[in-house]
Amino acid sequence: MSTAAGAGAPPPSLRTRLLRHVLAPLALIWLVGTVASALLANSFTQRAFDRSLLDDAYAIAANVRQGAGGLEFPLSSREVKAVLFDQLETVYFAVLREDGTMLAGNASLPAAALQEEQVYRFSDVRYRGHALRAVRLRLATPADFEVIAAQTVLSRSIMLRSALLYTLASQVALLLVLALWLGRVIRRELKPLAEFQQALDQRDARDLAPMRVQASSRDLQRLGGAVNDLLARVDQGVQAQHEFAGNVAHELRTPLAGIRALASYGLAQKDPGVWREQLAGIVQSEARASHLVDQLLALALADEARGSMPRQPVALDQLVRDTVLRFLPRADAAGVDLGAFGLEQPVTVQGQPQLIEGVLNNLIDNALRYGRPPAGEAAQVTVELAREGQGGAAHVVLSVLDNGPGIAAAQRQQLQQRWVQGREGERLGQGAGLGLGIVTRYAELLGARLELGPGPEGRGLRACLVFGPDIVTAVTALS
After folding, report:
1. Is pLDDT at 192 greater than 50 in this prediction?
2. For the segment 65-81, what is each residue's pLDDT rounded down to a tens digit?
3. How many other β-carbons are positioned within 10 Å of the β-carbon of residue 455?
4. 311-475 adopts what CATH topology?
């Protein structure tokens, strides 16, 4: 149910999310800044109003005189109104003697008492139901007395509201203008991404050609590159599958047809000797078909393994020893002297054990199949592991040698291609021309190099897998 609910409410677009993440914090910051600015402006405004109120108190105090009966305040009510005139505010005052009795002004006008050594003090009070801002002023000339001046706070409130209103209005207007500008810029910057998405939506599933990306930013360029790399890998996989299917259909047709023909012919005969002969032919054709299937699967693995098999340290000496021991029974049965040299010291390279083993299997298999010398001479196949070069330029060479007929120099490069078979394979009717093609692809995946050349004394074939200095990780001197 939660999944259905989530599907019913699609997530917001990238443009909306960007605007939200930019404008929401900006609006909050501007709001806090506006309130802080308004409060700061109000503080300075209050100081100006307080200074004006203090000036009114000093103006009243300047009219206090020392008379025969003590302190006197000679101004009439009209004169006091002229001194304390304010167009918007109502102003109150009181003149108090030293003992606190009122000399003139509004009776019972409250104000905060002065502390010691304070000359004046401001306070907020209420008088006759009105909120007032008051100041109490203490003077010692012509005698000790105090003056209280107070006024309503209408102007102050209007000033604060106006500051908040105009500041907020200007900030909101700026925020709206910024939102419109950001929306337009983000829409323009995301347009290539939308076009890229639309192109992907409209592309046929079978079209794996690279996408054209109008990169307005490095991120979009990287995204387009990643998508094109993915399409290239998918295209390689699809081509490998098509090629594998075509290879299987093409190459297995002949041995399967031969098996069917042998079986049909045998069933039509009544002589057990013919049956045995046909069954032997079926076994031989099945072995050829199995070998072909193994090579096709190995080739498909090589195509799919491109870039997907991480390198790891491989003990090359141990791998060669195990592979040679595995081939010894077959070599003995075929009367071939199979040996190995250079395995006394450990050798480590960076690679994939399966691929290196696949290379060695194919090279030894080819040597056992086709490396037969002329009649009367013993067949020999030798696997060698050697180090060439010194220091940082040292590289390891894995070689398989035979004393057979060898391969002409003109054919060596050609035989590394798929489905190309040498004269010996054609004469023996074995193989499908995939062995060296598989070895070449494996060498490419390993970052190594396959070299074909004549054997010792110019006889036979020497197939070498060369591991460069960047692949060799631990090599000790080989004797």
Report:
1. yes
2. 988 878 888 888 888 88
3. 20
4. Heat Shock Protein 90 (3.30.565)
